Amino acid sequence: MTELLEPAAIGRSHTRRDGPAKVTGTAPYAFEVPVDNPLHCHPVQATIARGRCSRVGTVEAESLDGVLRVLTPFTSERLADTEDAELAVLQDREIPFRGRVIGLVVAETSETARHAADLVEVEYDTETADVTLSAERDDLYKPDKVNPSFPTDSAEGDVDAALRDADVTVEQTYTTAMYHNNPLEPHATTALWENGTLTLWDSTQGVHPVRQTVSKLFGLPADHVRVIGPYVGGGFGSKGTAHAHVVLAALAARAVPGRPVRLALTRQQMFSQAGYRTPTIQRMRLGAGQDGRLRAIGLDVVEQTSRIKEFAEQTALPARMMYAAPNRATTHRLAALDVPVPSWMRAPGECPGMFGPEVAMDELAAELGIDPVELRIRNEPERDPDTGNPFSSRNLVACLRTGAENFGWAERDPRPGVRRDGDWLVGTGVAASVYPAKRMPGSTAVVRFEDGRYVAEIGAADIGTGTWTVLPQIAADALGVPVERVEARIGDTAHPTATVAGGSTGTASWGSAVVAAARAFRDKYGEDPENGAEAQADMPENPDEDRYAMYAFGAQFAEARVNADTGEIRVSRLHGTFAAGRIVNPLTARSQFLGGMTMGLSMALHENSVLDPRFGHVVNHDLAEYHIAANADIGDLRADWLDEHDPHLNPMGSKGIGEIGIVGTAAAVANAVFHATGVRVRDLPITLDKVLAGLPD
Predict the structure, then answer these.
(1) Is the distance from CB of 370 to CB of 376 less than 8 angstroms?
(2) 143 vs 159: CA distance, rounded Å
(3) For 60, phi and psi rounded to 5 degrees?
(4) CA-to-CA distance for 227 and 186, rounded, in angstroms?
(5) Both ends of the chain: CA-CA distance in Å?
(6) How many Cβ atoms from other residues are within 10 Å of residue 697's Cβ?
(7) Annotated catalytic, 411?
(8) How far is CA 293 from the centre of its chain?
């Protein structure tokens, strides 16, 4: 059991400390840091999906006034480590996917660099590319693990036999699209080499992980690389690992000693250079008795990865623990294609992995004539079905009941397609949400007393989630001082080591280290420290993490309106009720919940990266054609949470909240569209062409 902080600053709403700098434009982002006499670079990208470049002609580009260097696979510096093929750019002539960087122009201005990149001549030896994902492929394979280190498959009991004996079954296939993260700030890096030391100002979710990656690539001691990123304009997972542009910026800066180099990916380049969420094909099987109790859960997932680097999204993972059933089985299979490398996107695994199961649960409820909320409650497990461990806290039932009451669920007519409001068919849907409540080992914090104020230093990241604001709250509670007397210093490898901002682990991990340092400070100096006093501590281990299943839970309720004549779909109400431990800052927390739900709505109705099977690239690679939810799509959006006390988590009693809001949202919308129209859409996004033919007269 973890010793919890007595709440003082924790649990109170505090406005964002970084807000004024951001809204006044004084917060320096990676591309904007003030450096002397910067150069600019622009990548040259392959226009084929598979093959090799036989020739790269640079004469015309190099003759352009203002161009300093053009790097190619024939002229680039050799990296010390090329094990990671995604990052081994300009190291060989192979083209593993369309958009692979095969050249880099360094010039005095960004306009000149871009112009010169267009003048580079490339000749190819082209091979036939394979970019099509299908569950019928005969070369699907079983990865050794799924992200980050979970067993690929799971099995308990006999699912096939239980399905044969079940009173009611649902056996359907559901698909989610390819999604691109598209944070507002594009991926950007400014690089400078001085006296054998590399400084990177990078838009990243983890300065220390970037330093670790880059130092290995260039064969440098870690203390010869400094990474700075105090302000990050969103990431959603895409900035959780280093991508090729970071390496390119460092290569360019090394080629022009003494001058800093800036590289910012264009929006179009981000669709091939910065990761994405793999499309998934989910074969879902449920078997139940007439009482609605599940007897079998089966989920077989097919997804894609790049031929040069494997990433296996843990899509089936939530199905292993969400509901009680004596017979359960899940599998993951991959197709290795000539496509860019997929990676993390907000709630990897849980986000796509709860779509198929939660829509299938709605289908099962319809078959049984049981209310969808009640069906989920009837299948509540006493322990984690996957590990057998007790839950540290599991308040899904309370989320369902409280959310249903707030939403007005009791007024719902269970029959689909019967409620109208003028030209609009109206329906409501529900889905459950879950996300692990974990910490990531490896963070260290320092607490210092300077000029009458306390300072908490840790190399954490704030990607818009509120780190600048909540860490002083956590430190203030641990020190027993007003939060106004505490400041944070983050986003720099000059500060103590911190883990990546990912997996909803940031506040839990960094906050635990800050609390440990604050307690060490108080033990050493008492309440009247001298100027310069400081204490350092690592995030302590928590033995309860191995003894309990730790998750946040939620229930999403959606109201959909579908035009009876045109099939236009609108979501007029979207409510989420969550159980996520103690909420450190209600103001920033609500923003995170609502942001996740908005992103889930976007996934449900709009987002779809369309891959051209002839050429292997995403054709709608900009924000004009890659549609995301806008203000007009957002109606009554509401996030609530329960007052949850969980002593097993961490000193704050908090659970991660950055990702759970997106989980379950798309399924709730799909279920609401079915209830409005009687048309079941199993393939995201839900567009009017998928409902129009089945609309009632």
Answers:
(1) no
(2) 22
(3) -65, -40
(4) 17
(5) 60
(6) 3
(7) no
(8) 33
pLDDT at 1: 67
Q: Domain 39-128+192-259 belongs to what topology?
A: Aldehyde Oxidoreductase; domain 3 (3.90.1170)
Q: Which fold has domain 19-28+443-537?
A: Aldehyde Oxidoreductase; domain 4 (3.30.365)
- 668: three-class secondary structure by DSSP: helix
Residue with tokens 């050429």: 615
Give the CA angle between residues 137, 139, 141 to the nearest 5°: 115
Q: What is the pLDDT of residues 438-448, one digit of tens each?
A: 999 999 999 99
Please give the model's pTM, rounded to 2 decimal places.
0.97
Phi, psi of 325 (to 5 degrees): -165, 135
Q: If you search the block for the tokens 């290995």, which residue do you land on?
A: 216
Half-sphere exposure of 694 (CA within 13 A, CB side): 16
Torsions phi, psi for 593 (to 5 deg)? -60, -50
**pLDDT lower than 70: segments of the chain:** 1, 7
Copy the structure tokens of residue 81.
């480590």
CATH topology of domain 154-178+277-438+547-694: Aldehyde Oxidoreductase; domain 4 (3.30.365)
For CA atoms 241, 247, 249, 253, give the dihedral sign: positive
Q: Where are the beta strands (DSSP E) in 523-568?
A: 534-538, 549-563
Whether 679 contacts 687, CB under 8 Å: no
pLDDT (0 to 100) of residue 4:
79
Both structure tokens of 342: 């997929």
Of the residues 185, 303, 644, 659, which is catalytic? 659
3-state secondary structure of 510: helix
Strand positions, DSSP E, 153-251: 154-156, 168-176, 188-194, 197-202, 225-228
pLDDT given for residue 3 in this prediction: 78
Q: Kindly list the domain boundaries of the chain, sorted by start residue.
A: 19-28+443-537, 39-128+192-259, 154-178+277-438+547-694
For residue 146, what is the DSSP state?
A: B
Pure H helices in 432-525: 467-479, 506-525
Closest to 237 (Cα-Cα) out of 311, 300, 308? 311
Number of alpha carbons in the 13 Å side-chain half-sphere of residue 557:
25
Predicted pLDDT at 52:
98
Which residue, among 277, 125, 257, 266, has the nearest Cα to 198 in the 3D structure?
Answer: 257
DSSP of 625-645: TS----GGG--EEEEEE----
Helix (H) or strand (E) holding 60: helix 59-62
Quote the DSSP letter at residue 66: T
Neighbouring residues of 446: CB distance < 8 A, sequence distance ≥ 6: 455, 456, 457, 458, 495, 496, 517, 534, 535, 536
Rg of the Cα atoms in the chain: 26
DSSP characters over 586-613:
HHHHHHHHHHHHHHHHHHHHT----B-T
Give burial (CB, 10 Å; 0-12/13-18/19+) of 532: exposed
Q: Name the helix (H) or strand (E) containing 334.
A: strand 327-337
- Give bridge partners of residue 106 from the DSSP assignment: 41, 69
Question: What single-letter DSSP state applies at residue 159?
Answer: H
Collapsed DSSP state (helix, strand, coil) of residue 182? coil
In b/e form, how buried is each residue of 521-531, taking b as 16+ CB within 10 angstroms?
A: bbeeeeeebee
d(CA 252, CA 247): 9
Rounded to whole angstroms, what are the CA distances from 516 to 467, 505, 510, 520? 17, 17, 10, 6
